[in-house]
Amino acid sequence: MADVAGRLTKLAEEVLGARLPVRIRAWDRSESGPPGAPTLVIRHRRALRRMLFRPGELGLARAWVAGDLDIEGDLYAALDLLAGLIWERPGSPGPQRAAVLRALARPEMRAAARQLLTLAGAPVPPAPPAEEVRRRRGPLHTLRRDKEAISHHYDVGNDFYALVLGPSMVYSCAYWGTAEQGVVTLEDAQRGKLDLICRKLGLQEGMRLLDVGCGWGSMVLHAVREYGVRAVGITLSEEQATFARKRVAEAGLADRIEIRVQDYREVHDEPFDAISSIGMAEHVGRTQYAEYAGALYSLLKPGGRLLNHQIARRPVADEEAYHVDEFIDRYVFPDGELAPLGRTVGQLEEAGFEVRDVEAIREHYARTLRQWVANLEEHWDRAVRLTSVGRARVWRLYMAACALSFERNRLGVNQVLAVRTPEGGSSGVPLRARDWR
Fold this sequence. Notes:
Elements: H1 4-16, E1 23-25, E2 31-32, E3 39-42, H2 46-53, H3 57-66, E4 69-72, H4 75-86, H5 97-105, H6 110-120, H7 143-154, H8 158-165, H9 186-200, E5 208-212, H10 218-227, E6 230-235, H11 238-250, E7 257-261, E8 272-278, H12 289-299, E9 300-313, H13 326-332, H14 341-350, E10 354-360, H15 362-378, H16 380-386, H17 389-407, E11 411-419
Helix pairs in contact: 1-6, 2-3, 2-6, 3-17, 4-17, 9-10, 12-14, 15-17, 16-17
């Protein structure tokens, strides 16, 4: 069993049909691979069983979350090097799970497969880590199933989120600027994003705002304090609602802000002058998006504005074959789905909206995610105590991988301003673009 790392490197390169760009250190302390490169540390042969029984992204993710697999060195550099080989993204050059299985099934690869099985040990698949979503009840995107999916991601402890997000408690892309513009910290950038949204919505004193997916209440608090509106915030997370209500009470704004545990499909006390939906539409799903757009349109008064802040993916040749990354679906955002920007704009228009502005801010999200990763790493021990080591590992991997996806233009994020333009045609939007008053 000597030089396990060397044997694994050789076998992996045979299966993948490419050179491994990272080093490998195996459980017997042997090492192999390019000197100076980030090191993939295989702490236990159980990691091989996870990858053999579920080749591709999910097997690697399970090994990472369980602590059977780790990275030594620059995490971002390692993920960047490995992305083309193992990440299951639509349109990516890397092998999908089926391709790996086909490779192992080829007659000339049977010897390699037997060696991998020998190195892996017991021919029994390990149980998935406890942090993985397993049983999902009911059809996709029912009220109950959506609430359970949101709870999986958001009801992991407000103290944990405070460590990662910082004092702003805003869980969406910040809007960065320069020191001359007064944007120095993450909190400055998040405040700038909230204010940008308020200006795009044209908020004025006395208006009524609906914030769909209000999180911990930061948007409604900013809008009421700075613009004098009345606000309703809705979320499906009980923990978020409890936290937001406490913030509202402490700010003395309970008479102007209402926080509800409510689905957007359950809101019937229209009309609203403006609606913000910030980082929520990714949970809606392609089958429900027309209903989502239609519901928000019906909740707005004529002339009212919607600001839809949403992550987008790149379009693929066969949109029907699109699927969410297995790691994201099982560990991060169950049932979440991303759409290309063009499809989102089209569906908003089909619902009746006039789309007036689209601002792409993907580089801002890359920087935001790197800051969240830095916050998590700085407070790692406390984060583990507040949740679990597996949960903390999920967050570190997903945020770092997403930062790279935004940097490499695999993902984008866009603010779409849309208006329920009255029949007379007066949108109320200023003639000069980006002059939101």
